[in-house]
Amino acid sequence: MSGKDYFNQALSDFMFEAASGGAIRHLSDLGYSVDQIMGKLAFPTPRDRVEKAVYRHLSESGILRESLPAEPEQMRSTTLSAAHIDRISARFLSLIDENGEENAYLECHFGAFERREPARWEELLACLNSREREYISGIRWQRDIMYHRLNGRMREIAEKLVIYGGYEIRCWFLQSREILVVHKP
């Protein structure tokens, strides 16, 4: 990169940060989707730039991870049927309480579906409401498998994927070293 290009890029980054960067991070922390964030910004910002900023913020804050610090062999696995979702919800809440939300993650295969299985990606999105679809589709799933913190929104999405989408889900609880596998009966 030449000196002029470097300067122009640095100036562009500075202007973006001053105009939108802080607002994007704040709105992301509040759980806004990329579409919602774009609607709230005072300064017009290209969607691509907003998506990149959201991805970076989610990654830097530990909400979205490309890998976990534990291998499956180091964890015990429990498999549950989603026949009684109230039991699954109670188990999620119990494990999140035991581990802390910062140590609870949903294994997401969204990148693989989006890139390699477009029909399955559309099925997945179809079982979610518009707010959940906007959130999931606004994240740049850089890898085939990623991990999203099992916060309230992702717990809700995980439950819908099992019940209405028929997907098997895996939730990782790092402190208790447990993988909870939930599938539709």
Description:
With 185 residues, the protein is α+β, with helices and mostly antiparallel strands. The chain contains eight helices and six strands; from the N terminus they run αααββαβαααβαββ. It has a six-stranded mixed β-sheet. The model has no long low-confidence stretch (mean pLDDT 86). Strand 5 (169-173) and strand 6 form a beta hairpin.
Q: Helix fraction?
A: 40-55%
Strand tally is 6
Helix/strand class: alpha+beta
User: What percentage of amino acids are in beta strands?
Assistant: 15-25%
- Give the CA-based shape: globular
Specify the biggest β-sheet: 6 strands, mixed
Uncertain stretches of 5 or more adjacent residues: none
Write the element-wise H/E pattern from the N-terminal end onward.
Answer: HHHEEHEHHHEHEE
Q: Count of DSSP helices? A: 8
Trace the largest sheet across and list its strands: 1-4-3-5-6-2
**Distance, first to last CA:** 56 Å
Radius of gyration: 18 Å
Mean pLDDT: 86
